[in-house]
## 1
Amino acid sequence: MKTLTEYWTFHTRKRREIIHITERVREVVRKSGIREGMVLVSAMHVTAGVYVNDNEPGIIADILDWLEQLAPARPDYRHHATGEDNADAHLKALLIHHQVVIPVTNGDLDLGPWQRIFYAEFDGQRPKRVLVKVMGE
């Protein structure tokens, strides 16, 4: 089995931001030379995530609104007693999850017709790392 690992750093301008990364992941798969296998895309921080969904502005806004309803930014989280102010970001990241695994078939991402890969930042404006690991033959 062959592998290729890359580490990316994102430094978002906003605290909360969704970044479409499908083509960037696809390029790593191509660079790997792996024809059959899988690619893992994993946010290496507890206040960020990676998910697969439609690249349509309405659903992206709906996802952000849904996350804010489930884990609203507010001052009364117990985590804030540690001096932090990002408890809602931790909770949002749990809802999105921190990683995805995508099949690689014939040297390309094997996504459904509307599936795209996104990096979700919930406590940005500082450097955050993402791991991309392609595995296969």
## 2
Amino acid sequence: MAYAQTLPMRQGVFYDAAGGRDSVLGDAAAVVIMSWAIAVCARLCVPLPFTPVPLTGSTLGVLYAGALLGPRRGSAAAALYLLQGGCGLPFFSGGAAGWACLLGPTGGYLLGFLPGAWLAGFLAQRGWDRRTGSSLVLLLAGSAVILACGLVGLARFVPFGRLLSVGLYPFLAGDLLKSVVCAVLLPWGWHRIGRESGKK
């Protein structure tokens, strides 16, 4: 039996199919709110002089959305975030906006938010969020997917010999820290949307 099916159905997390209009509205509200949370995290931006990719908090928001909302709604929140930023809202790192951001050096990382959020949510639904150690593993797995997508996109702008030094190594410590913070914040998020982690 899938992990999600073993959980009590709770308003705000795993909606009952019979929930009707309230469930749809609740899903939509969760997706919108988390897309804005990702945008807030993206405001935490530190440019690095040796790479076109800045240190940013957006990965924290993406992984949190995935682990908290599950694969479907978590990746939907990431997609809505990208859509809003592409349409001109200052949602990308440092307040940037526009579709050009998705085509530039950071575009691979941004597009990697979709599979990264999905994977974090997929693993969380299967119980990887039950313990601190496995929570960190699922968050780091989502982060690894984002970094891999980012490297693929960055390879168009950076010589292969410098790819890891400008697109991977500078971000490993920060991604570890963001994963730890996300793991610490998950129980608070569950409580806010009505899920009691002790009853998994």
## 3
Amino acid sequence: MSNNFHTLIPTCPSPAPQECCEGLRFPVTAEGNDAVALVIRYQNVVHAYLNRCANVALKLDWLEGEFLEFIGLYLMCATHGAVYEPKTGKYAGGSCHGGRLHKILVGESND
């Protein structure tokens, strides 16, 4: 029998990720390794992913917390320009094809 549970990782005050503004980074453990995740607010919903391009295993942000391309419609890899849908993490275009970002389940709390 295995125990499946999720550990709550407080990352920031709920209003911190603001629509069309900078996202935030936070530490996580993924597949037994230390990693960095990102959280953004898109269309008034908070989304989180590993901060790792699906095509090239490098961080997405241009500068710390800058994950969206200049129009603010897509998450964009700073290294090679692949873009991903903020709601799903699904590949949406750019120099590589396919893949998706690793989604992290998040929730908001006013506690």
## 4
Amino acid sequence: MADPMRIRAQAAGDKATVRVLMAHEMETGQRKDSAGKTIPAWFIQDVVASHNGKQVFSAQWGPAVSKNPFLQFNVKGAKAGDKITVTWTDNKGDKRTDEATVS
């Protein structure tokens, strides 16, 4: 299982800014190791975010996203104490879900 995501969610007015740092190698499948063998592709494909259980964001990614990707988005109607949940799934079927409370 991958390292936990670092999620920060801060309320400002009628919205919250959510910042997510994901720990993932994000291999493109085009690089070679020291022996000259191709390193297999391994990258996050789907990202879904929820606000108090209701989906508010989804994305489909490919191999062009950098290692340890950073994601930022706004959630309208979020206030302090609400829960933000972020889940990603990679092309090998690995999955990670983490949660943060809006401050």
